Backbone:
């Protein structure tokens, strides 16, 4: 942790300036590498545990023993486990997750096809969570112990106690079926399919680029309910963490000094204290985004949203193990990437982390 | 008259519990618990959570007394999708089963999952965290690397992959959830061990010739347990939600078991016309998880105020 101490005492000037960050980056990369290897180990083991015999799946149960043995050797199941793992790792590194049984396409192509839908959903949810969650958390902190704080604390507790799939159903029932404020399940109405050329994969963005106003409105109307529901969950977490970070900032002496100097309390809270709290919030937001990807699995099932979650769920029930493991790997890699990003960003926004521990 | 003696008796016990100079180890320990309880009792929300959890446990234990076991699985196809009535308090589902009975008996499944996951997660977490903190060095580095790897995984997705590989069912759901829940406990146990490792009473035990195992089990584990238990209470809502999520996806308890998540899922088809089939079991999940969260928050507050 103590990066400055690791630079040799005789090192001066730029050497010392460079050594700290470089060491830090290397450390982060090393831990990312280990975690990635761990992830592949786990998916490899899952692939071994599964009670389906992949050889039987190819040759059928009436195949003579020699055919069985030949196919078994062809797919490399007769090799020692470490060798099999090595082969698996090499394939994964080349982006080869095998073919999907249902779509008979390479799993990677499938994943790249469905991932933008999930990204669209979870990005909007994250934006909702941060835009509302941070101010709410600040208000709770500045009104500590008063009714505003109690209401916000209870409201966010309800948020992270909520089964997201149930909230989704209740939302559909209320806002789609009864009130008719939003569109129902799916990403677009049937009539709007395939109008907009794919640029980013996010239909809301693509329709704006193409200037298709109707498509944009329809897509947004489909998106807003699932995104709000996921957003509420992340809002609850973001608000709670903002509150506790702000409380620890507001206790510091610089706040008192700023107030004593005659700065307006508004400025001290929202600019000075919140400015410092952002440093810690970055990690929280990165983790929130990871958990949104998870929440998307359930939300997509409820809203028939054609993203990664629905893809994994459907693959699961068709015993399409390649697709399930590919999806797990993708979510895992995004997760690890987010962790790495927040580790690397931390010293950039916090000068203290750059200097020493 | 008996009321007076009872009150005097209680006052006596109170004095004994709050005694500043306890005469025995047990008196000190009970006194500490009693003070924590006094602090906890003042927290209205936490008491609500405690009440909800007690109620849930009560419902699970006395399920056969308050609901008809038969009705939970009995399919009466002539009474499909009936709204709430005196006969069926929460209505009936798509197979004519009584939703009230199913929700009541479903509490047993939920609590079983929570209990089993806890029974796996705490020993595993302690088993990895304690040696890491106690021995340090290579042991620590290796064990914590493994922990970090599991900590970096998305929980539900990994549980999903495990459940897919092991096949659907309660046991496998429990294993899958446990596999993704233990890492924070290992970290917690390690941190607690590190703060106590150099304490004088540990050194005293070492000088008396106690083995490492004995020191870990008799000196360090009891000190770790309070924070582990608080963490567990806070985690229980998450465990319930993950289990319900797996059930909703069809990977938890299998039909006809009255698992709440699976019940929500089966009610989806009739959501627009018979809303109660999906929403009532969901409400049960929600209330349970709120209860555990309130209880956990309250316990944490009590332990924090004790610490400083």
Residues:
């Amino acid at each position: 942790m103590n990066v400055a101490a690791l630079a040799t005492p005789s090192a001066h000037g730029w050497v010392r300036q460079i050594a700290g960050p470089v060491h830090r980056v290397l450390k982060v990369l090393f831990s990312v590498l280990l975690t990635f290897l761990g992830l592949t180990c786990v998916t490899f083991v899952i692939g071994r545990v599964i009670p389906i015999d992949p050889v039987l799946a190819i040759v059928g149960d009436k195949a003579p023993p020699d055919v069985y043995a030949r196919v078994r050797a062809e797919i490399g199941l007769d090799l020692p486990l470490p060798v099999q793992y090595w082969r698996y790792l090499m394939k994964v590194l080349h982006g080869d997750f095998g073919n999907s049984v249902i779509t008979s396409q390479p799993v990677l192509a499938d994943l790249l096809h469905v991932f933008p839908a999930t990204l669209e959903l979870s990005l909007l949810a994250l934006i909702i969570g941060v835009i509302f969650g941070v101010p709410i958390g600040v208000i709770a902190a500045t009104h500590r112990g008063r009714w505003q704080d109690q209401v916000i604390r209870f409201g966010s507790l309800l948020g992270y106690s909520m089964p997201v799939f149930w909230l989704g159903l209740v939302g559909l029932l209320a806002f789609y079926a009864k009130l008719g404020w939003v569109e129902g399940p799916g990403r677009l109405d049937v009539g709007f399919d395939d109008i907009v050329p794919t640029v980013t994969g996010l239909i809301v963005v693509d329709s704006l680029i193409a200037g298709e106003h109707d498509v944009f409105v329809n897509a947004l109307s489909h998106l807003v309910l699932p995104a709000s529901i996921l957003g509420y969950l992340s809002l609850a977490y973001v608000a709670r963490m903002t509150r506790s970070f702000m409380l620890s900032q507001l206790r510091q002496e610089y706040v008192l000094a700023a107030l004593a100097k005659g700065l307006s309390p508004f400025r001290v809270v929202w600019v000075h204290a919140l400015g410092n709290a952002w440093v810690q919030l970055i990690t929280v937001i990165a983790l929130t985004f990871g958990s949104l990807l998870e929440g998307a699995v359930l939300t997509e099932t409820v809203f028939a949203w054609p993203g990664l979650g629905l893809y994994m769920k459907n693959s699961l029930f068709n015993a399409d193990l390649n697709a399930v493991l590919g999806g797990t790997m993708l979510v895992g890699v995004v997760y690890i990437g987010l962790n790495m990003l927040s580790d690397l960003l931390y010293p950039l926004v916090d000068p203290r982390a750059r200097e020493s521990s | 008259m008996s009321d007076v003696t009872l009150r005097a008796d209680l006052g006596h016990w109170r004095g004994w519990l709050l005694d500043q100079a306890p005469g025995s180890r047990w008196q000190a320990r009970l006194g500490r618990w009693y003070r924590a309880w006094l602090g906890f009792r003042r927290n209205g929300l936490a008491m609500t959570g405690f009440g909800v959890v007690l109620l849930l446990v009560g419902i699970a234990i006395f399920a056969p007394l308050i609901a008809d076991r038969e009705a939970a699985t009995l399919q009466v196809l002539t009474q499909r999708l009936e709204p709430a009535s005196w006969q069926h308090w929460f209505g009936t589902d798509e197979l004519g089963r009584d939703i009230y009975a199913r929700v009541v008996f479903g509490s047993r499944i939920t609590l079983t999952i929570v209990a089993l996951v806890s029974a796996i997660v705490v020993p595993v977490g302690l088993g990895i965290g304690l040696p890491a903190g106690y021995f340090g060095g290579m042991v620590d580095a290796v064990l914590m690397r493994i922990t970090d790897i599991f900590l970096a995984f998305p929980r539900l997705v990994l549980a999903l992959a495990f459940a897919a590989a092991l096949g659907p069912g309660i046991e496998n759901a429990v294993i899958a959830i446990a596999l993704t829940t233990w890492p924070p406990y290992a970290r917690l146990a390690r941190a607690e061990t590190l703060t106590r490792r150099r304490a004088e009473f540990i050194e005293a035990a070492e000088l008396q010739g106690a083995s490492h195992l004995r020191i870990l089990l008799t000196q360090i584990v009891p000190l770790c347990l309070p924070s582990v238990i608080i963490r567990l209470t806070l985690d229980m809502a998450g465990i319930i939600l993950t289990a319900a999520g797996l059930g909703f996806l069809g990977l938890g308890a299998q039909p006809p078991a009255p698992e709440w998540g699976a019940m929500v899922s089966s009610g989806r088809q009739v959501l627009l016309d018979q809303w109660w089939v999906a929403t009532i079991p969901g409400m049960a999940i929600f209330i349970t998880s709120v209860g555990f969260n309130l209880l956990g928050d309250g316990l944490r507050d009590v332990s924090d105020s004790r610490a400083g």
User: Anything to note?
Assistant: Residues 265-303 of chain A form the longest helix (39 residues). Chain A touches chain B through 50 residues (CB under 8 Å). Chain A has 15 helices and no strands.
